[in-house]
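Progress report, Aim 2. The chain analyzed during this reporting quarter is listed below.
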Amino acid sequence: MHSQRSTLLLLALFCGLFQIPLQAFQQSESPKDTTRLSLDEAYLNKGNEQDVFGLISGLYPGLMISRSGADPNQTHDAMVRGAGTIMGPQSPLVVIDGMIGAPLSLIDLNDIASIKLLKGHETAKYGMQGGNGVLEITTKGFTSEKLVVSVKQSLFADSRIYKDKLLGRDGFLALGGNDLGSNTTWVDEITTTSVSSLSHVNVKGATGPIQYNVSGNVRLVNGILKESGFDQYNLLGRLKWSLNESVSLSYSGSLTERDADLGFGEAFKQAYRMNPTQPVRFESGALYQAIFFDYYNPVGFIEYASKTRESSLFSQQLGLEKNFERSTLKVRANYFNNTSNYNEDFNPLFFYNYNNNAYKASAYSSEQVNLGATYSIHKQQLGVFEVSEVFSAGYLSRHTELLERSIFNGALREIEDADDFDLYHFDATVNASIPNVLSAEVYLRYENSGTLGANQQSAIFPSIALDLELGSIFPSWKNFKLSGSYGMAGLTLYDEDYNSDAADAPLGLNLINPDLTFEKSLNSDIGLTFLSLDKSISVSAVRFSRNVKDIMGGGVSAGFLGEAPPEMLLNNSELKNTGWELMGSYTHSWTDKSFRSTISFSTLTTEWIDFPYSGLETSFLTYRNDQPLLFQEGEPYGALIGYPSYFSNGQNVFLDFNGDGDIDMDDKATLGQALPQMWLGWRNEFRIGKTSLSFLMEGVFGHYMVNSANFERGINDIEGGNLNVLEDRYSFYNNQNFLSSPFVENADYIRLRYLSVEHQLTLGEYDLQIFGVVNNLFTLSHFRGNDPSARLSDLPVDFYYFNRLGIQRTQEWLPSRSFMIGVKASF
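Predicted structure tokens for the chain:
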């Protein structure tokens, strides 16, 4: 009751200051901040999308989603309002039907009803797990009808996009390459136009007090790299039993089995190196192999090597809901178990086997229990105020185990690791509003994490949000709403070994830091929303700030500067993210026609405020061991460093950037940044009768990328007489390719993400929908490589613990273009 009185007092004081005549307002629809709305199934991206982030790419302002290449086993990278950590993933926390931290494969994409992105102050509701934003996913619900059956079947073909081509036989020989007698296009030897199928069946209905919803999904997906892809089988069941008008029980369970042939990106790297006159096989039929450093027949990675992962995911959830006269109590308990087995093996006849692990295998398991209860007090009218309250408590426990085994130089290596993560919380929310004038939400969360320092395991996460109808003060602004908010979320460690005194602790961190705390995201924003009187036009604009403090691990890489790294994990870095978000839509309807156009627009500026050992250059380029990623105060997150230069008459001319008369390492400068500074998504949908057409255009601007293919294979030298080079190259000699301006390229692009046509028809008792979708029909960019998509992550390298970005690797998959046809029937 004290929290109600405090909130009401603040609201009354606010109204008094602005002299708002509360009795003068009439009921009308309030403008809604469209940058935060849920997206329902019909609005999500269409076509060849195999993970949830692909479904929402380009649709939410403030959310950057990217993926390089067409590997079907690689999920999209995602980043909400900039960067928030350097030790872990940047992707938002995933919550599926209330199951916190759920794996993406817990459910099939066909079972998603809606997706909501939490950012800014809203993330405080997930405390130490919400710092990178939160993606709340809701699966499809129940029906009151007796029985409804729907079936969906689609097929799609995936073909490679090969832009950055290599020299053919004639060009290779003209440049002085060795003639081995054949004419081989190596990219053709390892890629194919793949065909995949997606199947979905859903049965739902109601019988008496029981409602049910059961669905089954099969994804048989093949990649453009030969012998790659995955087979996934998913079953999801939901049940609701209404014991009476006020009490109901619910149950949901899911099972996902996935067998994946991961393929080797190394095959693409070697295809970019191979002599085009080299045959694939000897006359005997054996694989043609030559003895040359880092030179392996790419077909060997298809026929003489395997990389597989078998995974199984099982979940269950129980719920109880009791409705009282003025309140509701909800209790839930959920559990999931995720196991996977990874195997990497090479035929002893394959030369790659001799310089690398002959065998590698790992077994991983993770199980989680989450208990929670929520008590909601319904809206109460207190004078001119409407007040509601929500109280909740919860407990989460997660246990993970990992076993890795490998054979290297005949010796067995074995790594075992087990981690426990426990977290509990208590929450309170007060919502108060004066209809059509002002609304406020005040939230407070107490949370405790067992993986932090003994002195810092508990924390309080506050947030507050205010919405003011400007028409209540300025009558001519009655279609506008002003919003403001502030909140704090965080990131905690999930691996307790990073703060331990074990002799084998990772990164050499063998001292416990009792004051190790969570990484704090301090979020604030202010926004303005407009809704036209006829509701056909809506626009929301938000200015946000995300200041991330107490970032862990900033000094662990001090060895790159020749300094001794700390012996314990420290909170010692600070990063600021700011930007604008805009969401606008226009809708118009005729008798049997409609048109809707929506644009999502975002900007982002990042800056290191504090970083120990400022000036640290990290990451790794294989060709000359250059380190292009710069961590320096005042620079953006993901700054790319190299030598300023330009090409003239076939020469790479280096600049004396600091003007001291010498060309040396002191002339290095920031050549660009890996993170986009601006991106947008423009979605349009036309309906005429029972036919609809929709498409999404994406534009990403302001990001730069190290073009490794041009850096390594853009030379004029046929090294050893065998290493091929690019057709479109700078034609320099290999003693001039220090990382410099020509190889750190602007990668702006505009892309048609999908174009979809759908038609509905009725055949007897069946409602049918036939559809066709094309993905990635075209991409417009000046980037010389195959794929200008921003690189928000990088291939794993054992001795780099931190996030690396902004590098286009030669072992990346080629991008692809997909064509899908399908039919959906319901009865």
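Residues 1-28 have pLDDT under 50 and may be disordered. The helical segments are 2-18, 52-56, 169-174, 186-190, 266-271, 300-303, 352-355, 708-713. These observations will guide the mutagenesis work planned for the next reporting period.
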